Amino acid sequence: MTEPIRVLHFADIHIGMENYGRIDPSSGLNQRVLDFVTRLKEIVDYAVAHEADAVIFAGDAFKTRDPNPTYQRAFARQIVRLSKENIPTVLLVGNHDMPAIEQRATSVDIFQTLDVPNVVVGREEKLHRLQTKHGMLQVATVPWPQRSRLMTHEEHRGMTIEQLDQELEKTVADEIDRMAQELDPAMPAILTGHFTVTGSTFGSERSVMLGRDTPIKLSSLHLDAWDYIALGHIHKFQDINKGKMPGVVYSGSLERIDFGEEDERKGFVWVQAIHGQTTWEFAPMEVRRFVTITADATQDGDTPTDAVIRAIERQDIKNAIVRIRVKLLQEQETALKPREIEAALADAHLIAGISKDIQRDVRSRIGVENPETLTPMEALDRYFISKGLPRDRINDLMRMAKDVMA
Question: What are the φ and ψ backbone dihedral angles of 172, each rounded to 5 degrees?
Answer without folding.
Answer: -60, -45
